[in-house]
Design goal:
signal, mainly beta, disulfide bond, 12% helix, CUB_dom, 11 strands, Jelly Rolls, 4-stranded antiparallel beta sheet, Sperma_CUB_dom_sf, repeat, single chain, globular, 5-stranded mixed beta sheet
Length: 162
């Protein structure tokens, strides 16, 4: 029987957990998965792993109409080696406001995983500031609870030399 040292287990477990969460959220490197809401029976895009050399745009489900309840979408943006990411949120931005953004929110992390260093958690009517990654990945989670939906967001990203 081969035993892994405890330090390897501690480093490996969060990585596996993040991959499982990424798979369950529907984010894949091949493209966007489509999910159906029971409320509208309408297909909406929710989460993606994206790598477009020119940059791109992604939105909350149904934007600019209200996003559906009970939704978690993971967006991972990957830049080419030796490039960083700049992320801009459109001025037409509305996420259910709450103290410390405990309910509906957007969470941005500096790296490809849910345990990468947090850049910020955002909600309310004021769009977030321009966000710049320190490396070639950004991990973005949009979370909506079961109550009080709003318009959501549209975000645009591009790449800059590191």
């Amino acid at each position: 029987m081969v035993l892994m040292p405890l330090v390897h287990i501690r480093l490996f477990f969060p990585f596996v957990t993040s991959l499982i969460i990424l798979h369950l959220s529907g984010a894949t490197k091949k493209g966007t998965e489509k999910q159906t809401t029971s409320e509208t029976q309408k297909s909406v895009q929710c989460g993606t792993w994206t790598k477009h050399a020119e940059g791109g745009i992604f939105t909350s489900p149904n934007y600019p109409s209200k996003y559906p309840p009970d939704r978690e979408c993971i967006y991972i943006i990957e830049a080419a080696p030796r490039q960083c990411i700049e992320l801009y949120f459109d001025e037409k931005y509305s996420i259910e406001p709450s103290w410390e953004c405990k309910f509906d929110h957007i969470e941005v992390r500096d790296g490809p995983f849910g345990f990468s260093p947090i850049i910020g958690r955002f909600c309310g009517q004021q769009n977030p500031p321009v966000i710049k990654s320190s490396g070639r990945f950004l991990w973005i989670k949009f979370f909506a609870d079961g109550e009080l939906e709003s318009m959501g967001f549209s975000a645009r990203y591009n790449f800059t030399p590191a």
